[in-house]
Specification:
The chain is of the alpha/beta class and about 350 residues long. It contains 13 helices and 15 strands. The chain has a domain of about 240 residues: Rossmann fold, CATH 3.40.50.720.
Amino acid sequence: MSLFDSVREQLRTQPKRWLVTGVAGFIGSNLLEQLLQLDQRVLGLDNLSTGHRRNLDEVQAAVLAPQWSRFQFLEGDIRDAALCSKAGAGVDFVLHHAALVSVPLSIAEPATTRAINVQGTLNLLQSACDNGVGRFVYATSSAVYGDEPGESMSEEMIGRPLSPYAESKRTNELDALEFARRHGLATVGLRYFNVFGPRQDPNGAYAAVIPKWIHALLRNEPVQIFGDGETTRDFCPIDNVVQANLLAATAPKPEALNHAYNIACGERTSLNQLFAMLRQLLGRHNPAIASREPEYCDFRPGDVRHSRADITRARQMLGYAPEQTVSAGLESALKWYLPLANQRTGW
């Protein structure tokens, strides 16, 4: 039995109360589904600006009726300090994922980014402190590495932020450390690298590359690759992120607390490789896709050439062991995207 299996079994026998912010979003709704399947009590907070009620509907369909009855939804904004204070009452663990997550949008709207990502997180940290929350787990990002020139990122390698989004996430990490030092709040930051999976929205100008490409291939639209396609990323299936959150919330080692950890697969996948995998998988459902070719465009200013996470610290301190590979994660994601494409709902 893996450590993750042991944690899930322990939670089943000793249920806790969780606050999940951004619960109607991509990552938040996947966390909700896992927690309810483990018979946990969950309060979800979301203002539905980028999250969707349909994600909550899907979770309801995926769990048993008694499990769904353990979920309470609170519609609201993390910029509302009073609401955050109310949401933290009686909570054992916070999984904080509400944020403005688009780098281009953060450049267009830096003040909004700071208000949501920085002040909103401060409101939740204060609420957790005031309400005696046992553990505050929060989403940060590989964007904090900024212009760090290394190709394999370890946690101590912090560069100059390249966007207001990156700056806000680095500020979250510093604020969490301050609450730990001054108030004894137990925090864990999770630096995500290119997370993907079911319920990741393929629409909009700021959609992530995997859902955007799936959307384009299924609709016979052009797939654009910026540069020569040899740019690499450490793509991380959502199942691995769910594992990391539960391990971070329950990690027994005191020395594991008040740090940020890389969460990824620890592997590099080029954009050309990614396109080939998607083309092969989708070609099983539509043979015409198997012969598609991408359109190559100029490199975008500011794009990082290579990015891979060193996940040694997360393995050692949290017991993190990514169970789903990129290829397996793509197959799982397609089980969600294909019916959506057939229905043309929201596409």
